[in-house]
Specification:
Chain A: It comes from Thalassococcus halodurans. Chain A: This is Multisubunit potassium/proton antiporter, PhaC subunit. Chain A: It is found in: Cell membrane. Chain A: The chain crosses the membrane at residues 26-49, 70-95. The structure holds 2 protein chains of 2 kinds. By secondary structure, chain A is mostly helical. Chain A has a single domain (2-50, 63-97), classed as Helix Hairpins (Orthogonal Bundle), CATH 1.10.287. Helix content of chain A is 64%, strand content 0%. In chain A, helix 1 packs antiparallel against helix 2 and helix 2 packs antiparallel against helix 3 (66-97). Chain A starts with a helix and ends in a 15-residue tail after the last helix. Chain B is mainly α. Among the domains of chain B are: 267-500, no CATH class; 732-945, no CATH class. In chain B, the strands form 2 sheets. Chain B has a two-stranded antiparallel ribbon. A two-stranded antiparallel ribbon of chain B has the order 3-4. In chain B, a hairpin with a 4-residue loop joins strand 1 and strand 2. The longest helix of chain B has 32 residues, at 154-185. The chains are: A mainly alpha, B mainly alpha. The interface between A and B is large, with 90 and 120 residues.
Chain lengths: 112, 955
């Protein structure tokens, strides 16, 4: 089970990084969203993986670690805010310059 | 008066000049003067206690954990300097009142001056070296403002910059030195450090600490090789030069050497560094001063020279050296400040400070000439003036000092320096005031009004009094010297007197004065020879070094930060992966290792879905709409994963955030191109893929390791689980953590969210009010629009759904404390319900029916959360402490009311407002002028009989 989660995080990270290194704003934003998933799952997993023991107090004896959940919950909401800000900046740049490259156009890297 | 008040007065008073500025120059200067005088009187009120041998201290805890406390101490040394600072400050303010012209902003000037004064007083009264450092840096900053006061002069700006660079760097070095010293002594309090002479001098870190502290002192007191900034700082108005660059700030370094003298001096390192630097500075400054034509430059270099003299005396490490140094500090402050003020008067009246254009002024301005002559003769070391006595004592001290070569070397060098010192003093007098009256002065020189010559006149009176009757100040000098010596040596039994008999120092003095006169007579030839000699120009070297570093910094920046985001991303990923790899290879994870849990079919299924969607996304990301759909799938799987691994709250949050994120991205995609063009070369892609895979492997390995290892430290979660119900009154531990245990965190987070939404709103406004607006209005959609913009089915459906979703939202909110749910999730759900109305019936229709602006809702949310927190104060608890109780209204079941609910309501409102404001802002971009807003919820309404509105865009 741990392997599944770890590899899922790895794949999300790799995909996120690859997309974050693209040349246009939109894939970069998508890449950053994937990285957000990866980071959130990672934080969540740091409390350990437990099936069927939500941290809702009842007659049960074991509960999963509630703290990472609380941290990730706000992280998810905040990451929405962050994505929205990045998107509006990207949008403003594109509408202002009719160009959605992330790199400076003066660069002679041959990518632009 | 309390020490704190003495230090604080100038800072508080710094507000006065600005306020009084509009009330006239007299009021402005008067206010400043009153502040300084009050502080001075406060200082004097402490003198009786000092005389009784007491050391007055005052202590306030500030940051005790860092050892940084406001501890003030007044001993004779501190009082001596504080009296110099405040006393000469008083005179300078009177002088400055008349010196500044009507075009100068007097309020600004006096504000800076008081800030500087406060910082200086702070230095000399600090008992805590960290506090001292704070004041030390403040003097650098305030002197920067004062030097650059005439902002229109390039020399002023350059001089200010140079002074700040040099003294600032010295200050940085000194911070390091002080830290080391504090570590050795185990305390940052001077009173403790000064008791630890043995421990400090035997420490291995003594030499680094000494060098770092001396760097600070030498830069501040313009000692060789850092002497070059002082003459350039003379671009400041003359009151500043007189105050900062002769009497006070440049003596801060000297003060610190004196303050630290008991613990730092007496070692060979101290002796060689300090004495050598002092001696070189003294001679070099004196020689250069003779050949300067600018009166203030001459005085600047002479100040450098005299500071060198004092430094050298402190360096010798003997009690007599200290006594002489203290005496010379006093003498130098009196005659040099008077000289600077006289030079300022000459400049003010004759409109030039160039000594070659002056001469014969004694006929035109006799008072000024008399003042300047007395002060300069004192500087030259002529009997009956105070400079003579301390200079002779200095010469006597050099006889006992042996540095490097034979024992006559130091006395010879000192006499040589004194000779030049006499020569430039004579030149100052003769070339400015003597000789025939000229008819080509740029101005019309005459004596200024009383206000301007009062201050220097008072100072030269002191010069004469001390010179004739040195025994008057003997108790003072001895008490201060005793404070410097700090009990290491006894104060020498020496009497300050004019006549000590025919002894070597007298002969040396005579040689110096006679030589000075001869040198003056030969000045023309000497000057020509000097001008012909090539010399390194400090300013050029300094600028060269600065240019070199600026160029280097620019190069590094340009290489690393070349505008290619892609590169930063790659460099960042590689660096993090490499660091993590290093930790992985070398670190010791330790701890218990768990057995992996068995895989389940459900989990495997989810994994396959996630991996498939992710890989598909990577390969298909060019089609942006497909990419969004795949993102949605990934988000859904993640949310199901949360649910599977016992995190129902996270699952609900993730799925609702997913919905609003996708809506947001769709809105953005409306404007962005639909396709990402293929631009990267195959090699480039491969490189990116390698970086990405490395990063992914690292993340996977880290997670796997983390999941199978045990906690390094015990988790605090046990506490949360145990106290959630008892202390917070809720069974949903995650929610209790959010609104109670870590409520302050959450409070910050909803504020951040609100700010993010406001940023989006502001950016949108900017876009809509800029050139982009026209483009947006004239935009032709690249795809055919739907014929029916507001489909009947959708409108009807969302209308029916609305109350249902709202009810769900309320339900989720209410149960949040005990069951999965809460403000965050409820807020997101309600936001989705509202967004659906926008989607179905259009922006105009929906916003017409929106009664409260979203900004307000965000604000109300933050306010509600904050007020709930403050409510705890009224029950005597700390901010955000929650309280709860159980109630029963008869027909219903028992229910709970917790103050946390008010907080959660704040979270709810802030989330609704933030999400809606973001989405609304995006959709505002899409409104186009030539599409009429529909008054109806749907375009085709079977119940409406009239013509359907124009359906443009279908074509």
């Amino acid at each position: 089970m741990e392997l599944l989660v770890a590899s899922a995080i790895g794949i999300l990270t790799a995909a996120g990084l690859y997309l974050a290194m693209r040349l246009r704003t939109f894939p970069v934003i998508i890449g950053m969203s994937l990285l957000t998933y990866a980071v959130n799952i990672f934080l969540f997993a740091s409390g350990g993986l437990t099936v069927g023991a939500p941290p809702i107090l009842s007659d049960a004896t074991t509960y999963t670690d509630p703290l990472p959940q609380a941290l990730v919950l706000t992280a998810i909401v905040i990451s929405f805010g962050m994505t929205a800000v990045v998107v509006v900046i990207a949008l403003g740049a594109y509408l202002g310059a009719n160009d959605d490259h992330v790199n400076d156009l003066d660069e002679k890297e041959g990518q632009a | 008066m309390s020490l704190l008040l003495i230090v604080a007065l100038p800072f508080l008073g710094a507000l006065l000049p600005g306020i009084l500025n509009s009330a006239g120059r007299q009021a402005c200067a008067g206010g400043t003067l009153a502040v300084t005088l009050t502080a001075l009187i406060g200082l004097i009120s402490n003198i009786p206690d000092l005389m009784a041998g007491e050391v007055i201290t005052q202590r306030f805890e500030w940051l005790p954990a860092l050892g940084l406390n406001v501890t003030l101490m007044l001993d004779p040394l501190g009082a001596f300097f504080a009296a110099l600072i405040l006393g000469i400050g008083t005179l300078i303010i009177i002088y400055g009142r008349y010196y500044l012209s009507r075009n100068d902003n007097m309020g600004e000037f006096f504000t800076y001056l008081l800030l500087f004064q406060g910082a200086m007083v702070g230095i000399v009264l600090s008992d805590n070296i960290l506090l001292l450092l704070v004041f030390w840096e403040l003097t650098s900053l305030s002197s920067f403002l004062l030097i650059g006061y005439w902002k229109h002069l390039p020399e002023g700006r350059q001089g200010a910059r140079m002074a700040l660079t040099v003294t600032g760097m010295g200050g940085l070095a000194m911070i390091g030195g002080m830290m080391i010293l504090g570590q050795i002594a185990g305390s940052y309090d001077l009173s403790v450090i000064l008791q630890n002479r043995e421990a400090i001098q035997s420490s291995d870190l003594y030499v680094p600490a000494l060098i770092l502290i001396l760097l600070g002192c030498f830069t501040k007191s313009a000692q060789f090789p850092f002497h070059f900034w002082l003459p350039h700082a003379m671009a400041a108005p003359t009151p500043v030069s007189a105050y900062l660059h002769s009497a006070t700030m440049v003596k801060a370094g000297i003060f610190l050497m004196a303050r630290m003298w008991p613990v730092l001096s007496g070692t060979p390192e101290w002796f060689y560094i300090v004495t050598t630097a002092g001696l070189i500075t003294m001679v070099l400054g004196a020689v250069i001063a003779l050949f300067k034509h600018d009166l203030k430059a001459l005085l600047a270099f002479s100040t450098v020279s005299h500071l060198g003299l004092i430094t050298m005396l402190l360096g010798t490490g003997t009690a007599f050296g200290v006594l002489t140094a203290v005496f010379h500090i006093l003498n130098h402050a009196t005659f040099k400040a008077a000289l600077f003020m006289s030079a300022g008067i000459v400049d003010h009246e004759a409109h030039t400070r160039d000594i070659r254009r002056l001469g014969g002024l004694r006929h035109l301005m006799p008072i000024t000439a008399a003042i300047a002559t007395v002060a300069a003769l004192s500087m030259a070391g002529i009997p009956l003036f105070n400079g003579f006595i301390s200079k002779e004592m200095m010469l006597e001290e050099t006889l006992e000092t042996q540095l490097f070569g034979p024992h006559w070397l130091v006395p010879a060098i000192a006499t040589f320096g004194a000779l030049f010192s006499a020569a430039y003093s004579f030149r100052f007098i003769v070339h400015t005031f003597f000789g025939p009256k000229r008819d080509d002065y740029p101005g019309h020189p005459h004596d200024p009004n009383k206000g301007m010559w009062f201050s220097p006149a008072l100072l030269v009176t002191l010069v004469v009094i001390i010179g004739v009757a040195p025994f008057l100040v003997e108790p003072l000098v001895k008490t201060v010297a005793g404070a410097v010596l700090g009990g290491v040596y006894a104060v020498p039994d020496y009497h300050l007197a004019i006549w000590h008999g025919f002894k070597p120092p007298l002969y040396m003095s005579m040689i110096a004065v006679a030589g000075g006169l001869i040198l003056l007579a030969m000045h023309k030839g000497a000057q020509a020879a000097w001008d012909a000699t090539p010399r390194p120009e400090a300013k050029t070297i300094f600028e060269g070094i600065i240019a070199f570093f600026a160029g280097l910094a620019e190069k590094i920046t340009a290489t690393l930060h070349d505008g290619a985001f892609t590169r930063y991303a790659a460099i960042l990923s590689l660096t993090i992966t490499a660091l993590a790899g290093h930790a992985w290879m070398t670190g010791n994870s330790g701890g218990r290792v768990f057995e992996p849990q068995p895989m389940t079919e459900v989990a495997l299924l989810g994994w396959v879905a996630l991996v498939a969607a992710t890989l598909f996304l990577v390969f298909k990301h060019r089609d942006r709409l497909v990419a969004l759909i795949l993102m949605g799938i990934i988000g859904t799987v993640v949310s199901v994963g949360f649910a599977y691994f016992s995190a129902p709250d996270l699952a609900m949050t993730q799925i609702s955030v997913e919905v609003v994120t996708i809506i947001l991205m769709l809105l953005a995609l409306n404007f962005l191109p639909d396709v990402t063009p293929a631009e990267s070369s195959a090699g480039h892609k491969l490189g990116n893929a390698v970086v990405a895979v490395l990063g992914g492997l690292g993340a996977a390995a880290l997670t796997y390791h983390l999941l199978l290892g045990d906690f390094v430290q015990n988790s605090i979660s046990e506490y949360h689980l145990a106290n959630s119900y008892k202390g917070g009154g809720g069974t949903n531990v995650v929610n209790v953590i959010l609104v109670d245990f870590r409520g302050f965190d959450t409070f910050g987070e909803i504020i951040v969210l609100g700010i993010a939404a406001l940023v989006i709103y502001a950016l949108t406004e900017t876009l809509l009010n800029g050139p982009v607006r026209a483009r947006l209005l004239n935009r032709v959609p690249d795809k055919p629009l739907a014929g029916d913009r507001h489909p009947t089915m959708m409108v009807v459906l969302t209308r029916i759904m609305m109350p249902v979703v709202l009810l769900v939202g309320v339900y989720i909110f209410l149960r949040g404390h005990n069951e999965p749910g809460g403000g965050f999730i409820a807020g997101l759900v309600v936001a989705i319900a509202v967004v659906m109305q926008y989607m179905a019936s259009g922006f105009a229709w929906a916003s017409d029916r929106q009664r409260y602006p979203y900004h307000g809702i965000i604000g109300a949310g933050v306010l509600a959360a904050g007020l709930t927190g403050i409510g705890a104060w009224f029950t005597g608890h700390e901010f955000l402490t929650s309280s709860f109780g159980y109630f029963r209204i008869p027909p219903m079941e028992k229910f709970e009311l917790a103050s946390a609910m008010g907080f959660d309501l704040g979270v709810f409102l802030a989330v609704v407002g933030a999400v809606m404001l973001s989405l609304e802002s995006f959709s505002r971009l899409a409104r186009r002028a030539h599409v009429p807003d529909s008054d109806y919820p749907m375009d085709i309404d079977p119940s409406r009989e009239e013509e359907t509105p124009n359906q443009e865009g279908a074509a």
